[in-house]
Amino acid sequence: MANHPSAIKRSRQIEKRNLLNKYNAKTARNAVKQLRSTTDKAVAQELLPKVVAMLDKTSKKNTIHKNKAANLKSKLTKLVNKL
Known about the structure:
With 83 residues, this protein is mainly α. It has a single domain, classed as CATH 1.20.58.110. 84% of the residues lie in helices and 0% in strands.
């Protein structure tokens, strides 16, 4: 690791950001799994806007790619409509 103060600060920032990104991505994945596992249409329709908002936030912060978020939202909407 570099000894320069700015490099030390940068590594601290990266560690913090990685931790937040991991948390946000994992929470979004768990929400998607929960939505996919529901069989009740009313519950699924209630969960869908929350999951979509979560995916939008994670893609806005570049934790996941915007196209991946769009694909997930599309597939989840189709799944909810099919129930």
